[in-house]
Design a protein that fits this description.
The chain is mainly alpha-helical. About 70% of the residues lie in helices and about 0% in strands. It has 7 helices and no strands. Helix 2 packs across helix 3 and helix 5 packs across helix 7. The longest helix has 26 residues. The protein is elongated, with a radius of gyration of 33 Å. It starts with 7 loop residues before the first helix and ends in an 11-residue tail after the last helix.
Length: about 180
Amino acid sequence: MAPGAVAPGTAGALVRDLWPLVAAEASAEAHGGALDPGDLEQSVWVRLLELLGTEGPPPDAAGWVAGAVRDEARRARSRSQREHPYPAEPAAGPAACPERAALVAERRRALRAAVARAPGRCRRLLTAMLAPEDPTYREIAGELGISQGSLGPMRSRCLGCLRRMLATEVAAPELGGKER
């Protein structure tokens, strides 16, 4: 056994004997400082187990517990003064907002309508790219009957066409964020 280490049975007996004292001290100190007594207890137990592993049991266990609880409470109060919570967000997150869901659905509808008005080859390519199965370039090229190498340039031209179509429908904001 390492020097200062405690025999396994001794540590269990010490913990069992100190349990009510640690709970009472932590409860008293926590309520005075608006802390969680369970967190305070846990911190004290961790300190005690570290001490038992290195130096052995404290000579005055009751005095050690009172001092350790005060020290941990002071640390917790200091930490709470430095830490600030993040601003509150909706519980379900911003994506679950009904307004945002409606805007996303409207954008998808506008995109699908613009794709339906695109010229023949572009309509087929963009429809294939928007498929819910998320096909690969190889699958899209096979479906359209074109080489996989020509898919990239064709996609670029079709997206440019789609961009021009949508630009005429949606007013672009002026510099400074003002709508025309």
